[in-house]
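To whoever picks this up:

The parser on our side crashed when reading a file containing two proteins. I've narrowed it down to the boundary between the first structure block and the second sequence. Both blocks are reproduced below exactly, byte for byte. First block:
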Amino acid sequence: MADAPSDRTTIRRLPERAVYDRHAVDAILDEALICQVGFIEDGAPVVIPTIHARVDDVLYLHGSPASRMLRAMRHGLEVSINATIVDGLVVARAAFHNSLNYRSVVLFGTARVVDDPDEKRAAMKAVTEHVIPGRWADSRPMTDKEAKGTLIAAIAIDEVSAKVRAGGPKDDDGDYSYPTWAGTVPLGLRAGDPIPDPLLTVGVPVPDYLTGYDRTM
């Protein structure tokens, strides 16, 4: 994808926050755990959250064949996809200027259902690794029945942009002397200690990729 934005991906409000660099877009998609998929169904807007994974220039979505979103994609479905990571609270002196520090991506495209068995399994591996890097090789191999019971959709990453806010509050000049605290509160996704399944075989250790789980890319 060229870094030049399309008309739909051009950031018009607060354009100084726009990011069109593909490497930055990929980094956000790779770090975000889930995305929101918007589409039109029977003339009405619908937004569905789902897990995704990026492989080069393609974004893959997974779900059940019974999913209305994924069923609709079999006929070619125009979608708008958003992925957002919240990095912190921005606390201004005036409530009007309170904000969030964030990184977000918006992608437009036509979804297609993945029918090729090799591409489908590669996409299912990518989705697993997107959520828990290292887990695919550690898991019981997927059966043909499980593969058939999963529907994978693909969207080319060729009409996309990102928007990023970072830094502290931006108050009006006359408010900087107002006697209230202002600044930022960093936020992040923190993993707790792994909790073993009560039916776990005795002696099976917690893998390093779970004890050291971290979404930061």
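<<boundary where parser fails>>
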Amino acid sequence: TGLLPVCFGEATKFSSILLGANKTYEATLKLGFLSTTGDAEGEISQVAATVPNPAFSECEQAINSFIGDIQQVPPMYSALKHQGKPLYAYARNGEVITRPARKVTIYGIQIQSLLGNELRLSIQCGTGTYIRTLAEDIGKALGCGGAYLISLRRTSIDCFQASRAHTLSALEEMNA
């Protein structure tokens, strides 16, 4: 959920700038479990022998290792193309394509809350970052075997903030 910029008329000329802009997300991770899609839509499996309950300080330490330029392997459930076909099409057929790691930048991660094995984060990142993959990698770094996203909300794109956005219904009511 969250912010989705919509460009009209002459503003469409600038839409490509938004694609490469930095973004901020609020993400809630379920530690100790994996999902085939990286989120609640996929098949969920428990990977930790017991449901993890990490300490706040452990989470801080693990998260700090992801700040800066990191290498990230894009998920199979993504729109990236392989031989002209999106990866998610292969994934839906049960095929796994080897994907090279890419450099992405994480500018900051703050812990919003930690309740049992649910870790809520605010993440500031550069373009091309897959938060689903970051969640799984954070879960592994915590020794939980992985994690998946139970919620994800984009709260900003560059200078545009979700708190200042309009809903679609509010846009429909506006005078052209």
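After patching the parser it read the second block fine. The longest strand covers residues 102-115. Strands lie at 23-31, 33-35, 44-46, 68-72, 81-82, 85-86, 102-115, 118-125, 147-157, 160-161.
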